[in-house]
Fold this protein.
Amino acid sequence: MNDGHGEKMLIKKTKSLCPTCGRVLEADVIEEEGKVWLVRTCPEHGVYRALYWSDVDMYRRFDAYERIGEGISNPQTTASPAGCPNDCGACENHRSTTLLANIDLTNRCNLNCDFCFANARACGYVYEPTFDQVVGMLSMLREEKPVPTPAVQFSGGEPTMRDDLPAIIRKAKELGMYQVQVATNGIRIAQEPDYLLQLKEAGLSTVYLHFDGVSRETNSKLASDRRAIENCEKIHLGVVLVPTVIKGRNDHEVGAIIKYAAEHIKTIRGVNFQPVAFTGAASEDDVRKERITIPELAERIEEQTNGVIKKDYFYPVPCVVPISNLVEAYTGKPQVTFTTHQHCGAATYVFVTDDGMVPINRMVDVDTFFESIEKMATKFAKGGSLNKYMTLVEGVKDLYTSTRKAEQDNTTEFMKLIGKALIMQNFEALRDFHWNALFIGTMHFMDSYNYDLDRVQRCCIHYATPDGRVIPFCTYNSGPVYREKVWKAFAQPGKDE
């Protein structure tokens, strides 16, 4: 044993993959010199050691928010005798429901990014499910229990290369999808504002825009991105910027990206940083040079925002589980629950004011806030003769103990919103919170080097496929890479790129 910064210390046992042959291996997650490493040994290819998290203290802080869900009660897939991740699909061993579903609409693309995990041009064939196949996937997602999938993101390739995208979006809304997103490089919506308007009128909620930097050196399509954002602003359509962060390439601009987003807060609702995943023909040397972990990203954000957005302001995704528990206990209806693995991602909010960015952590003691929510949820769950309304009123009063008096004006606005949502049961009000604030998040998707099967079994971002499966993101795009198998199985005969 040690103090956390010397000798090796075992944190947990898990399973991983051999990056060379893909064999499932027993693996150790260890602490050494203040960092967290994933270590496993392949009998054929030897020892592999990969950086998991660069800061053990942040890793352990996030551990405190672990929440293990119940999973999908009517899974489309039966657990494979060969074990995870073989014959993959969200089966009875999977512990999270689908919070966000991805559907690949095509593998055609009008770009050829070297880091793309869906390198469409290299396939040599066209994958493009029919409209009816897409409807079938959407229907399957909406039939999930205990909670139908609430959100879908149409991806690819480049989904805007399909002229029937408006009809697909309209169908998704008809089937009950609360949130409909399109993951796009923005080229077509920059060039064709009328097409963009069609997407919005069909029911598009958010443009998920690939945006790697604020300079020509980091973002070769910067001019196009700006036009796309301007076109979205004209029709009041929200945008989330999605930078792929690569160490040594664009990690010096993460603060500038956030600043750009804040300057366009009327349109840009968030920045979702995605540290690069090495899913192609990357060498171990490439991984060492270009890997950036969630703690490293948070450190760069703190440095490049001059300490406004601190590393400690980031929280793991499952920190919001108490809110879902409260709503479920109060309404008696199953709710979407963010039980993803605590080390998959991190997020925070900042309010953009005339005086600049105000992090939510300067308005609210976040830990105390969630503790108060959890306390209310527990009271409801116990039932009895407690008056629900009075419990909520007392609970909201308790929430005020989490406020920061130094930011009273902003805090009051925030607490009024929360109180309205809870006491009036107007949970739609929480949408106002999102639209009046800038979301800053990161999801670090896995590759064969840092593959952790514990994370796979807790994944909440899934792909729907034409063969009726729901596949976790990190087995669809890395490890076994089911994307290639699905695309080949449903490739359009006689067509190629």
